[in-house]
Specification:
This protein is 31% helix and 28% strand. By secondary structure, the protein is α+β, with helices and mostly antiparallel strands. It has a single domain, classed as Gcn5-related N-acetyltransferase (GNAT) (Aminopeptidase, 3-Layer(aba) Sandwich). It has a 6-stranded antiparallel β-sheet, sandwiched between helices.
Length: 199
Amino acid sequence: MDDAGRIINEGILKDAEFSDPLYHMVMNIPAIATPRLILRPFTLQDLNPLFAILQQPDIFKYFPRTDAPSLERVERIIAFYIKQAEDYGFSCWAVDLKDTGELIGWCGLNHLPETDEDEVAYLLSQAHHGRGYATEAARASLDFGFDTIGLPRIIALVHPENIASWRVIEKSGMTFLDRKVYWDLELLRYEKFKTPSPR
C-alpha cells in the first residue's frame, strides 16, 4: 500500500480485550492506519456508538432508505459487514480517529452481487464532515482493494445531489462513468481500475 494507508500488524488488535465472538471470525481482515484514522473490523461492541451516529438527522438523506434505523437494524448492519469480510476478504471497516479512538462511521468495500461489482462506500458522523476524513479513508480502501485483494475494478455510487460525495470520489482518483439505477435510485457511477483504464 502507498502513503494513503498501511496495514497494521494484526497482533495489535488481537491483544485487545474483545469478548465479541464475531470479532475473532474476521481477524484475518487487517486494520489499516492512515495519517489520522484507523480502519478496523467492526465488532458488536460498536453497536451503541454506531447507533448514535445513525440517529443524526438526514445522515441517510442520499441513501435508498432514509429513515433512522432501530438498534436491531444497526446490529444487522454490523453483522452484515462482519459476514461480508468473512465471505470476500473485504468489507466496510469501522473508522476511528487515531488520536482519540472515537468511532466516526464506516468506510470500505462492498460486493454488489446483483451486478457483480465491488464498490467503495463510506458514511461518517456529521460532526466530522468537511475535514477530509472520507477522502483519506476512501483512498486507503481503494489501495487495499487493488494492492491487497487484487480487485481489477472498483466503482462508487453517488446520489446526483450529493455534491460533497462527488468531491470525495473525484479526489480519490475515480472517473465518472454513467448514470445507472441501483436500489430504485438513479445514481452517478464512478470507476477506477487497478491498471490504467482500457477506455
